[in-house]
Write a structure and sequence with these properties.
Oligomer: single chain
Structural class: alpha+beta
Largest sheet: 10 strands, antiparallel
Order of helices and strands: HEEEHEEEEEEHEEE
Mean pLDDT: 84
Number of domains: 1
Organism: Sediminicurvatus halobius
CATH class: Alpha Beta
Protein name: SOUL heme-binding protein
Helix content: 10-25%
Radius of gyration: 16 Å
Keywords: Signal
CATH topology: Multidrug-efflux Transporter 1 Regulator Bmrr, Chain A
Amino acid sequence: MRPIPAALALLASLTTAGCSVFGGQAAPEPEYRVLVSEPPFEIREYPPLTVARTTAEGGWDAAVRRGFGRLFDYIGGANAPATEVSMTAPVLTEPQGDSIPMTAPVSAAPQGDGWRVMFVLPPEYTVATAPRPTHPEVEIATLPARRMAVLTFSGTLGDDRIAEARSRLAAWLADRPEAPAGAWQAAGYHPPWTLPWLRRNEVMVPVAMDG
């Protein structure tokens, strides 16, 4: 069976979750606690999350399309025991490996390793209980409990917008006690057909708290 094109897959999945072209409610998302709020910036505390993830090579756009297609197939039944898994938001992407910390120049891009694309699974799943992927490049993993510095912005997601958001988030953190403590991630909450100014996007990075 040929994979469903990523854009069509995202359209179908998030339509059933109640999204609209006018920026309606996106798919369910993980709960978190806001520790600091200085819009558009926040410090959040997330519990452990179970994710389905895959890695794809290439630039951000191409890698996300390929990775999204694999993960959409997984939640659509490309798993054992061939069961459907509810779609959640956001779709997370991050540079593969530790090659691009938050403090790297914003023009940096993965070289050879590519991008990791992740779907957060519904909270009832763990690594032990989630359906087993049948695609050899999809795996189930646990993200540990983390504190994340987050910048929320609208518009499209792509290399340039992500680089700009990373720069703004790094500048905000430079004046705060929290220090970046891991690789950054980009998060998209709405499908690509949502009006750009109504989309919710985020760039986030784990932080260490003084004291």
